[in-house]
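Request: Mind sharing a record?
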Amino acid sequence: MNFIKKNIFYLILIAVFAAITFVPGLKLKIRDLFFPIAEIENAVTIPEYDFDIDLKGINVPDNNLKNLKKDRLIFLNFWGTWCPPCREEWPTIQKLYDSQKDKVGFVLIAMQDKEEDVKKFLEKNNYSVPVYIAQSPISDKLLPKVFPTTFLLNQDGRILLKEDASKDWNSQSVHDFINNLSKH
């Protein structure tokens, strides 16, 4: 009993660390609480020719990224079934898609993945967000250095947001951010 009284602070600290580490989704919630919008890229615009990427549709028809960048925002996510942080953020991406698909075009590009693994992952989890596999080279301006990497782009190709880690994409701050941008 004396040991517990002397070390209560350390025991609480260990319990909090364990909860953050082992409770699914808690890390994302805490991160979003303290860092609501990751990084706004000021005046960085991807040139039109860098959007010329042929995409093989996994759960949607084949397309080209330049055709998907029309009159609305684009949620562009690079991920892989082999990537634990990518799989961790998927439920929040699906929820964001369900509520914002009328305002935002969603393009999730599976990287370093087999088509059958991607199909199996989508079917097993009942995900309907549009997923593609790139069939042509991806520009260095878009090619991710880490996974997942997500861009929110406007109609002109300007990077409005870039996230180089998993995030709770269904948070209120993300919805507010998209709603404010789509008013303009």
In short: The two ends are 62 Å apart (CA to CA). The domain at 38-182 is CATH 3.40.30.10 (Glutaredoxin). The first strand starts at residue 54 and ends at 57.
